[in-house]
Amino acid sequence: MKRIFFMLFFIFSFNIFSHPHVFFETALTLKTDNKKMEGVEIQLILDELNTKLNRKVLKPDKDMNVEKGNIVFLKHLYKHIRIKYNNKTYKEDDIIFEQAKLVDDSLEIYFFLPIDEKITKNSKLKIALYDTKYYYNYDYEKSSLKIDKNIKSKVNFFTNDKIKFYFNLVSPEEYEVTFE
């Protein structure tokens, strides 16, 4: 009997995959001024369960602001933000932590990536957020990206099947913005 249970355990364990444990709702805003790309504002909203689990560590002040040093997983998030403008790939050191605060039982984290480049015809911006270990999951869709209506652009939102991770089962969602 033990042998049967042991064999069943191994058969089923090969078919079981883990899943993301930390979920972020994501909003992105392109900051522009007079045909100049100032940068990308990134808002990550941690799910309520993980916010509650981290509440004691976050130690919000009376205004519900959270210090950067109290977000123990923050260092991982920088690595998941992938932005490229006109073939220049921005690194995690380029990303600026702006603030974090508790709002409606969820932790909101704000980053800014300064680009400070001129927008010309056919300038391209690519944005993707993903964790190749698939521990953190970023939820966003085409409407999660906000662009000033005065800036003419075409947004292509797609699954980049050229990139595979997590047993080759998952590919990241990506924005490709072409300016006109």
Describe the structure.
The protein is an alpha+beta fold and 180 residues long. Helices cover 17% and strands 42% of the residues. The protein contains three helices and eleven strands. The strands form two sheets. Strands 1, 2, 5, 6, 8 and 9 form a six-stranded mixed sheet that branches. Strands 4-3-7-11-10 form a five-stranded antiparallel sheet. Strand 1 (22-32) and strand 2 (36-46) form a beta hairpin. The longest helix is centred in the first third of the chain and has 12 residues, at 2-13. The termini are far apart.
Descriptive keywords:
alpha+beta, 3 helices, six-stranded mixed β-sheet, 180 residues
Overall morphology: globular
According to DSSP, the number of beta strands is: 11
Largest sheet: 6 strands, mixed
Taken as a percent bin, the fraction of beta residues is 35-45%
Terminus-to-terminus distance: 69 Å
Short recap of the structure:
With 180 residues, the protein is α+β, with helices and mostly antiparallel strands. The chain has helices at 2-13, 48-58, 74-80, and strands at residues 22-32, 36-46, 81-85, 88-89, 96-103, 106-118, 124-129, 136-139, 145-146, 153-159, 173-179.
Write the topology of this structure.
Elements: H1 2-13, E1 22-32, E2 36-46, H2 48-58, H3 74-80, E3 81-85, E4 88-89, E5 96-103, E6 106-118, E7 124-129, E8 136-139, E9 145-146, E10 153-159, E11 173-179
Parallel strand pairs: 1-8, 1-9
Antiparallel strand pairs: 1-2, 2-6, 3-4, 3-7, 5-6, 7-11, 10-11
